[in-house]
Structure formats: C-alpha cells, structure tokens
C-alpha cells in the first residue's frame, strides 16, 4: 500500500512538472519523442477581507454633548479597514524555463526526482497562514445614564416700561405659532430617551403598578430598548457594515533586488484595489531569502546527459502596511533558489 502511494505521488508529480502534450505557440510544438518539462516556480496568493463602514450622522449630533453628555460624529463618512489576510503558497510551472530530456535508462530516477518535488512537487502542498485583525474598540457610554445632562438655575429678570412719572413693570402676554428649533426638538428627543431608560429600570426592578414577569418582561424591555435605540440614533447616528473580499497573486522575480512587492492597496473610497491603483494605500509583501550554500567547485562534473532542477530558497515573508507587520511566515520560493543538474544515463 505504501509503495502504491509513492507511485501515485511520483505519477502526480510527473503530470504536474512534465509537459508531454504539444506546446502550441505561434504554430510551434515540442519535438516528438522528447520529454519536455518546466522548472517549478512559487507564487503567493493573498485572500484579503476588508470591512466597510458607511456612517450616517444623526440630525441632532451637535446637541449630543449638550443633552446626553456624549460626543457624537457629525459628518457622514465611509471607512475601510483590512480585517483578515490568508496567505497561501503554490508551486506552478515556470514557462520561461522549459527543458527537453530524451528518454533513457535514467528516466525512472529522473521521475523519482520530480516526485521529490524537483525538491519537491508532490510534497509541495499549499501552505497557508491566516491572520485576523480585530477592530480597535472604543469606549461607548452613549446608552448609559438615567439623568439628564442639563440642570436649572434660578434667575431674576427685569423688564420695565417708562411712563410719564416713573418706570413701571408691565406684564405682556402673547401667543404665536412658531416652528420648533432644532435645539428644542433635540431636547425633546433626549427627554424621551431618559424617560424610556427610567421606565426600563422600573420594569426590571418591579417599581411599577403593572406586573411583568417571564416573557412579558423580556418583551417589554426589548421594545423599550428598541425605541431608545431609535431615539439615540438621532444623536449618535448609525453605520451600515459590509464585507469586501478580494484575491491577489504575487510572483517573486530574481531581478527584484529588494524583493519588495506591492501586494494590493486599500482606497478610502473604493476599498481593496489592485497594486497598480495608486489611489490606495500600499500593502507590501517582502521576501527575505535564506542563503543557499554553493557546492565545492572541485566537485566532479557529470558526464553525458543531464536534467535541470531547482533547489528552493526558504524565505521569510512579511506583509506590512508600510509601518506595522500584519503577517509573517516562511515558505520555499523556487525561483529565488539555485538551478542544479541531475545526470541521466542513456
């Protein structure tokens, strides 16, 4: 059974790394009777999730401090933030490095090598690392407190009218219909909030003429809470929350000396955008290869036919927003490693 598993791995690897079918490009095809294969290449896939908050300011926001004693946002706004990133590495064929091998007596050993992954395809199962970034919490005391934020003070006002011989106090009464000011309406809403809170406390503590118990109490408290939240939204506003998910691929190249890549960007207005959309803030993926030792130059050079393969460089991969490291892992990257040869006996 173990031998059958090994054989299956070898066959699967051969199918992944060896291209036996015709390679049609510009009317050309691979030579008949030859085994054509590509060296492996590593790509990194990022599955990014962002949270979108669309905030709607309440019409009484500027009176929240005055009547409720809380600060409220006064402008509509849309905000995006990255909440999770899943990084997965995958091995794929490098179309730039394709080689032809004539079948010979050494082919079984060559196929065994490819099953070892071209170090190693069959065992190069996708490795994934996932991090989630919880939103920073802030203290919210907007629904606390049973007493009004206002108090009253006694004041004496004087209004006098001049007559022929003296100044006399005159009482003037008049009635007129006027539109309530925004301030007055905000005060009424705040008074209703405090009234609802007191009513809720009375029901919970039993300090009321009516008797509530079990489901009746729960239903009454829930309804009062719903009404309170509606009035509160007039002061502190409310937010619509949605989730945005995007996938991005990064393929490291040898000619990038810094090994620093813009993986994706986060725009204030559009959320997750591709790396080439400069309207967003860049998120950087950095590869730091481990040093690969060079064989002794006095080693015997192989005679006859050879096959090429890649030894990967194990890299430390970091995803950052330019300041903070959000994710870090270690993965083998084939194209940043070295190309070596394997002798094949005809």
Describe this structure in words.
The protein is of the alpha+beta class and 346 residues long. Helices cover 22% and strands 38% of the residues. It has five helices and twelve strands. α1 packs across α3 (107-115) and α4 runs antiparallel to α5.
Summarize the structure.
The chain is of the alpha+beta class. Strands 1, 2, 3, 4 and 7 form a five-stranded antiparallel β-sheet that branches. Strands 9-8-10-11-12 form a five-stranded antiparallel β-sheet. It has a two-stranded antiparallel ribbon with strand order 5-6.
Strand content: 35-45%
The SSE string, one letter per element, is HEEHEHEEEHHEEEEEE
Mean pLDDT: 75
What about the largest sheet? 5 strands, antiparallel
Number of helices: 5
The termini sit apart by: 31 Å
**Share of residues in helices:** 10-25%
Q: What are the defining features of this structure?
A:
346 residues, alpha+beta, five-stranded antiparallel sheet, 5 helices, 12 strands, 38% strand, elongated
Produce the secondary structure layout.
Elements lengths: L1 H16 E2 L15 E22 L7 H4 L9 E25 L5 H9 L11 E6 L27 E3 L4 E3 L12 H24 L8 H23 L1 E13 L9 E8 L3 E3 L7 E9 L15 E16 L4 E20 L2
Helix pairs in contact: 1-3, 4-5
């Amino acid at each position: 059974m173990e031998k059958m598993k090994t054989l299956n791995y070898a066959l699967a690897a051969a199918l992944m790394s060896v291209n036996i079918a015709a390679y049609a490009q510009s009317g050309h095809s691979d030579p008949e009777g030859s085994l054509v294969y590509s060296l492996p290449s590593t790509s990194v896939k990022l599955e990014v999730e962002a949270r979108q908050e669309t905030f709607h300011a309440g019409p009484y926001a500027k009176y929240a401090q005055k009547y409720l004693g809380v600060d409220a946002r006064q402008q509509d706004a849309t905000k995006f933030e990255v909440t999770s990133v899943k990084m997965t590495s995958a091995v794929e064929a490098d179309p730039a490095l394709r080689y032809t091998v004539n079948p010979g007596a050494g082919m079984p050993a060559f196929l065994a090598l490819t099953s070892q992954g071209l170090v190693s395809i069959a065992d190069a199962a996708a490795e994934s690392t996932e991090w989630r970034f919880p939103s920073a919490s802030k203290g919210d005391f907007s629904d606390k407190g049973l007493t009004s934020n206002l108090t009253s003070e006694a004041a004496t006002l004087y209004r006098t009218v001049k007559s022929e011989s003296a100044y006399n106090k005159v009482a003037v009464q008049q009635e007129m219909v006027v539109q309530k000011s925004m301030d007055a309406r905000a005060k009424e809403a705040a008074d209703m909030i405090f009234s609802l809170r007191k009513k809720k406390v009375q029901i919970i503590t039993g300090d009321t003429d009516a008797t509530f118990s079990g489901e009746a109490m729960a239903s009454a408290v829930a309804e009062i809470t719903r009404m309170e939240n509606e009035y509160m939204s007039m002061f502190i506003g409310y937010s619509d929350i949605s989730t945005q998910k995007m996938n991005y691929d990064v393929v490291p190249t040898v000619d990038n000396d810094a090994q620093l890549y813009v993986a994706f960007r986060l725009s204030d207005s559009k959320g997750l955008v591709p790396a080439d959309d400069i309207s967003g803030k860049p998120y950087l993926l950095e590869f730091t290869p481990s040093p690969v030792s060079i064989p002794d130059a006095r080693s015997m050079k192989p005679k006859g036919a050879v096959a090429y393969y890649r030894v990967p460089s194990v890299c430390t991969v970091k995803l950052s927003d330019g300041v903070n490291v959000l994710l870090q892992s270690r993965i083998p990257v084939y194209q940043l490693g070295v190309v070596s040869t394997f002798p094949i006996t005809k």
